[in-house]
Amino acid sequence: MKIKYIALAFTLLLAYSQMATAQKYEADWASLDQRPIPGWFEDAKFGIFIHWGPYSVPAWSPKGTYSEWYQYWLQSKSLFGNGDFKGDEVYEYHKKTYGDDFTYYDFGPEFTADLFDPEAWASLFEKAGAKYIVLTSKHHDGFTLWPNEQANDRGFAWNSMEVGAKRDLVGELTQAVRQTEVKMGLYYSLYEWYHPLWLSDKDKFVDQHYLPQVKDLVQRYQPDILWTDGEWEIEDTQWRSEEFLAWLYNESAAKDYILVNDRWGKGLRQKHGGYYTTEYEAGKVFDKPWEECRGMGFSFGYNQNEDAWDYNSTQALLLMLIDIVSNGGNLLLDIGPDHRGNIPPIMQERLMEMGEWLAKNGEAIYGTRPWKQSVQWSEGDRTIDHSGSYLGGDYILKQTVDKQDGKAVKEVFFTQNDKSVFAIIPDGSKQELVLKGLKADKRTTVRHLGSGKTLTYKQKGDDLHIMVPEEVLLGSKMNLPYSIKLQNVQ
């Protein structure tokens, strides 16, 4: 019988592969947007972003800004982000620390990655409960983490195989991750701030640098996700995005399974491409798969200027994940290794604690979809107070466990799969949980996911009242949400 099931599974897989390869996509959005999103992505819910490159050497920018933008801050003498800046902070820091004659390109040899252990990274990601990762193969500074011909067309070597690490960092991590069940994604910046061709002739940059480079990346590593960025300066027509995606879906080595995001030209986010993306936002809901990305602290790249209190707590990170998943999205949570290849211990700790929670509560997260109501609100104002360029991570605490005067809080989050409804509760202080508008019948079962304990309940009018024993609440890790599995409720 087992052999028959294996044979059937193989036949179905072969049929799907044949259908996928038989579908041809035209170089226009009407055709490209019809390409299905692989089912694994909607089930994954949690991914890890990794910003790593020569900017990890200085690893510094003012709080509230992106340290991976170091080259741009340095050469433009400008800053933007959350805070009140003069603009020349990075320039002055650089001059004081490295001197007038030390250029950004001099960081390349110091990006040694000598402590980079790809197997240890992959193991950490798996223990964290992540289902996919996205590594910056090239950021806006143009430095590639793989050996690439176009990376050197400035007139000098600017890739990790020839400079600094002397290693194919993309290749090594790809190989290690593929020994696990985690999917491998690659970030790629379309533009480069100071590439000579970008500054002088953007059409030549696209034709002679960008397109051959990104095709080399895809053909070499065949990633599960190609996560593009840096698209906002020119239109998709000038990027030749429709043409490239038709090649990607019809001819590339990853054509049968590769997934892309929505960053393919000026003004195109949340309009075209694969899944939609948001960045340091909240409260979004879309009619197709989507993903919110943000850092553990504020910066994506490692910023040694950030202190422990600038990092979101495990409680906040889990509540963000739950909030996003209840609205049908994924969380792509960023970490920034240092220039030697160390993942800072505070980042490791957060990932491990998230993985510990997901090991017990993952059934309420992975493979779920939004329920008929994503959240149960208390009375009050539901708007988010948002000052600054980017929404800080404390928004979710204010919306759940740190109630502000006059503001509503999210008392319960809901998800569902084809068998159950899940209620995820941020505040573990109440022994009587009231789920408004839920109705039980004689078949209803209510269980605490962490312990497996069956909980007693009463139907009172339109509300379901669940008794949560003190030992269950005490058994949950302090300040972390807990999950309840409900079957046969409406």
UniProtKB/TrEMBL annotation:
The organism's place on the tree of life at top rank: Bacteria
GO cellular component: lysosome
BP GO terms, sorted: fucose metabolic process; glycoside catabolic process
Primary enzyme class: hydrolase
Organism, as annotated: Echinicola pacifica
Keywords attached to this entry: Glycosidase, Hydrolase, Signal
Physiological role: Alpha-L-fucosidase is responsible for hydrolyzing the alpha-1,6-linked fucose joined to the reducing-end N-acetylglucosamine of the carbohydrate moieties of glycoproteins.
Signal sequence coordinates: 1-22
Protein family according to the UniProt entry: Belongs to the glycosyl hydrolase 29 family.
UniProt domain Glycoside hydrolase family 29 N-terminal: residue ranges: 14-363
Listed EC numbers: 3.2.1.51
InterPro entries named among the record's database cross-references: FUC_metazoa-typ, GH, Glyco_hydro_29, Glyco_hydro_29_N, Glyco_hydro_b
Record-given protein name: alpha-L-fucosidase
Site (May be important for catalysis): C293
UniProt-recorded Gene Ontology molecular function terms: alpha-L-fucosidase activity
